[in-house]
Structure formats: structure tokens, C-alpha cells
């Protein structure tokens, strides 16, 4: 019964336009015990319907913000460039991506050409405990807005974070996204499909693993990554650590285009150091040819502060009996 109520709430969340919410006054102090917008203070985990209501509020706050319009334009610009280069080289393999919208039921946004999204996928890693954390909830709201604006069906979006609670997994399922049951450690191949990877504030190894899994000109040209600035990672890490432990991040710096999401006081803790990365064919083809030969899987055996949850190794069979 509870699942049925949550599914109904999710449908309402997806299609009905919420009443306009007032912008919070600049410089307004929060009352004691009140979370700041996008704040990191832990909150009690609400029931599924309560989480959906909070998500809806976070989405509406984002939708009316200057940050959202600017961030969407940045992502859209990269997606258009990526689409143009793939259309020019492999038009038969390209799934369409709608960047326009029209009014949907209840006045909400509806993708103008959702039927043309074919092989466009989205993968989200590291969304966090959105039921109890304002930052994670705002990041999830951003993902849902992005899917709707770009015409990517939620069924084409996979989400995974090892910290998700059963209640949060149920909420995500009610929202229509696919919750992965296995820790991929970021090692997902796009297999010829255009894929947007949404990875806010993930560990460095997760980005390195993703690059390794798609270490070819063809695969990388189909990827767009919204996550930690690769340029910032390169600047913060010692060169010897970057080249030894995160060699794919080190080697791809000359083959990508990076655009930072706008900085805004309202979402400083939510999207700080976040950039959009895509891989122009001209840059990839300009890298040394031997760079692509026999890529070795990262192991991180001597790496400190790995910042990701490793996949649990299977237990050996018990032959004692």
C-alpha cells in the first residue's frame, strides 16, 4: 500500500507543476535547527512521500535560479557540439537528443522530441543519501531536471551509490530510474551509445575507471561527464601520483574540452568544482597513437585515500564439508 502511495506521489512529482516558490532573501539567516538551502546538515530520513515533496521543492528552487539556466546552457552547448561531430562522422549510429521543450500536462516542461532519444543514456554515480542530506537532494533534483530538459527518458537513466538506503532505492524506483544492483566501480562501457555520466563530487578513481573502460577514440567521443573538474584534479594531485595511480586522467587532459558550471553562493556546497567534460574527435585523434594500445585495468594497490567504495570480492567456495 505504501509503495502504491509513493508511486502516485512520484507521478505527481513528474508531471504537475508546483506553485511558484519565493526566492529566499539574500543574506537571510536560518533559524536554529533549519537547514540552509543545499546545506550539509544531516536531516531525519522522511518517508517516501516526504522525500518526494522535498525533492520537488529542491527542483523548483533550482528551476527558478540563475544557476540552473546558466548550467543548462553550458551542458547544452557541449551536447550540441558532440552531436554535431558525431552527425558528421557516424549519422546512422547517432540517437537524437532534444534540447527544446514544450509545455506538458499541468504546465510542466515536456521534451519536444523524446521519441528521438534512441540510444542516449544517462548514468549517475555517487548521488549520496538524498533523503537526509540537502546537498545530495539538490544534486538529484538537478539530474531529474536535466533528464526532462534533454528529453532522456528516466528509464534510460541508471543510478548507483553504495550508501543508498532501501527507502531511497524505493524512491528512485518510483521516480522511474533504474537502480543498479552491483557496484561497477565506474567501469561501464558505453558500447557505442551516447552517454551522459552525472558524477557530482565522486572519488578520483571513479573517473579514472570510467576513462579506462572507454579507452578508445570512438567510445570517448560519445561520452559527456558532469563531475569534478579534471583540470582541478590535475592541479591538486602530485604529478607522480596522477601518472601512477590515475594514468587515464593524466593522459586524457589534452583530449577533452572542459567548461565549468557557474559559481553561485546559493549552491556553493552543492556544485563547487563541478565541470562539464566532453571529448572532441579532433583532440582525441591528435593524441599519440600508442596512447590507446593495451590499456591496463587500474588496481590502486599502493594508492592512499582512494575515496571510493570497492566492489566486494566473491567469497571462495567452502570445501570443508
In short:
With about 325 residues, this protein is α/β, with parallel strands linked by helices. The chain has helices at about 1-15, 50-65, 65-90, 135-150, 165-175, 205-215, 215-220, 230-235, 240-245, 245-250, 270, 280-285, and strands at about 100-105, 110, 120-125, 155-160, 180, 195-200, 225-230, 255-260, 275-280.
Total number of distinct structural domains:
1
Number of helices: 12
Q: Average the pLDDT over all residues and give the rounded result.
A: 80
**Terminal Cα span:** 45 Å
Shape type: globular
According to DSSP, the number of beta strands is 9
Features:
Rossmann fold; 321 residues; two-stranded antiparallel sheet; 12% strand; 7-stranded mixed sheet; alpha/beta; 12 helices
Descriptive report:
With 321 residues, this protein is an alpha/beta fold. It has one domain (40-100, 109-292): Rossmann fold (3-Layer(aba) Sandwich), CATH 3.40.50. The protein is 39% helix and 12% strand. The protein is built from 12 helices and 9 strands. The strands form 2 sheets. The protein has a 7-stranded mixed β-sheet. Helix 1 (2-15) runs parallel beside helix 2. The radius of gyration is 20 Å and the shape is globular.
Protein topology:
Blueprint: H1 2-15, H2 48-63, H3 66-89, E1 101-103, E2 109-111, E3 121-125, H4 134-150, E4 157-160, H5 166-175, E5 178-179, E6 195-199, H6 204-213, H7 217-220, E7 223-228, H8 230-236, H9 239-245, H10 247-252, E8 257-260, H11 268-271, E9 274-278, H12 281-285
Parallel strand pairs: 3-4, 3-6, 4-5, 6-7
Antiparallel strand pairs: 1-2, 7-9, 8-9
Helix pairs in contact: 1-2, 1-5, 2-4, 2-5
Amino acid at each position: 500500500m505504501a509503495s502504491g502511495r509513493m508511486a502516485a506521489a512520484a507521478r505527481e512529482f513528474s508531471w504537475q507543476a508546483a506553485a511558484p516558490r519565493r526566492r529566499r532573501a539574500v543574506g537571510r539567516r536560518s533559524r536554529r535547527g533549519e537547514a540552509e538551502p543545499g546545506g550539509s546538515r544531516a536531516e531525519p530520513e522522511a518517508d517516501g512521500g516526504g522525500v518526494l515533496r522535498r525533492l520537488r521543492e529542491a527542483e523548483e528552487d533550482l528551476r527558478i535560479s540563475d544557476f540552473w539556466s546558466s548550467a543548462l546552457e553550458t551542458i547544452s552547448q557541449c551536447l550540441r557540439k558532440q552531436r554535431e561531430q558525431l552527425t558528421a562522422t557516424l549519422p546512422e549510429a547517432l540517437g537524437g537528443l532534444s534540447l527544446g521543450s514544450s509545455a506538458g500536462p499541468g504546465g510542466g516542461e515536456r521534451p519536444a522530441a523524446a521519441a528521438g532519444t534512441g540510444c542516449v543514456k544517462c548514468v549517475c554515480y555517487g548521488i549520496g543519501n538524498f533523503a537526509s542530506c540537502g546537498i545530495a537532494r539538490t544534486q538529484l533534483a538537478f539530474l531529474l531536471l536535466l533528464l526532462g530538459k534533454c528529453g532522456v527518458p528516466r528509464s534510460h537513466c541508471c543510478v548507483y551509490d553504495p550508501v543508498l538506503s532501501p527507502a531511497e532505492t524505493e524512491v528512485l524506483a518510483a521516480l522511474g530510474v533504474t537502480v543498479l544492483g552491483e557496484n561497477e566501480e565506474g567501469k561501464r562501457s558505453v558500447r557505442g551509445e551516447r552517454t551522459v555520466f552525472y558524477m557530482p563530487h565522486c572519488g578520483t578513481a571513479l573517473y579514472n575507471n570510467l576513462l579506462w573502460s572507454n579507452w578508445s577514440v570512438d567510445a570517448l567521443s560519445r561520452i559527456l561527464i558532469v563531475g569534478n573538474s579534471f583540470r582541478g584534479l590535475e592541479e591538486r594531485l602530485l604529478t607522480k601520483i596522477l601518472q601512477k595511480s590515475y594514468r587515464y586522467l593524466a593522459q586524457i587532459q589534452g583530449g577533452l574540452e572542459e567548461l565549468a558550471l557557474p559559481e553561485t553562493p546559493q549552491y556553493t556546497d552543492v556544485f563547487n568544482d563541478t565541470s562539464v567534460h566532453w571529448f572532441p574527435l579532433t583532440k582525441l585523434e591528435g593524441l599519440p597513437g600508442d596512447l590507446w594500445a593495451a590499456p591496463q585495468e587500474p588496481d590502486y594497490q599502493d594508492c592512499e585515500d582512494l575515496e571510493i567504495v570497492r566492489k566486494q570480492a566473491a567469497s571462495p567456495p567452502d570445501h570443508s564439508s
